[in-house]
Input
Amino acid sequence: MPTLTHYLVLSGVLFCIGTAGVFVRRNLITILLSIEIMLNAVNLTFVAFGRSMGSADGQIIVFFVMTVAAAEAAVGLAIVIGLFRHRESLNPDTFTSLKW
Amino acid sequence: MTLFYVFAAVAVVASLLVIAQRNPIYSVLLLIASFGALSGLYVLLDAPFVAVTQIVVYAGAIMVLFLFVVMLLNAPHEETDYDETVHPLRRPGPMRFGAALAVALVVELLWALTKSGGETGAFPGAAVSSVRTIGRSLFTNYAFAFEVTSVLILVAMVGAVVLARREGGPSAPPSA
Output
């Protein structure tokens, strides 16, 4: 049977894949997808710890994380659409107007 | 045990392909596959409520929203000023640094988790898997957080509409 450590290692690997995606990719949509990967890795940690502690709190917090992820995706994609209208590009390196 | 490794392999491989694809549509579809595998893992963890929510909310709603935006923008390929066939670790400056940092993070996390060790068997306690228990707790102990969540959703909805509105269009209010 898989133990808690198995799930934590898997979650860590998924989180690192998401981090690498944010750093490596130069496409706003792929960066948002990488953030979703990271959120899911954290969700897996919550459920695994909740199962380990025999409590329902982990699953409830996952419910809240999913809500926040939905709100983040909606607002983030609206911002992406607005940026694309202004610059005709999805490359974050082209949006440097606020850079000091 | 076999099922765990199957689901874990699917999740990791699909996630890796998500950040390796150049076409965002393939990325979104692969991420849905990854979420399916994670849903299987939630079933293995005796959390059927989370598994179903993962499929319905994540794969069904959020990913469709992504897919919709990808198709709306119609900008399939990443614009870069370097050759895209170059391996990420060989690309210039900050990207190489970021990839190296991510690899370092993987090594560090694996090291920390394997050092902890300790437990040998499966999960000791009984599982809390009934939707009844989750719902009761959600609407008693977490009632305030639940209501705040509804406000958050409202704010996100209004914000998305305001942000994505075309300025100066026929539907725009005068001097907003």
User: Anything to note?
Assistant: The domain at 4-95 of chain A is CATH 1.10.287.3510 (Helix Hairpins). Chain A has a mean pLDDT of 88. The radius of gyration of chain A is 17 Å. DSSP finds three helices and no strands in chain A.
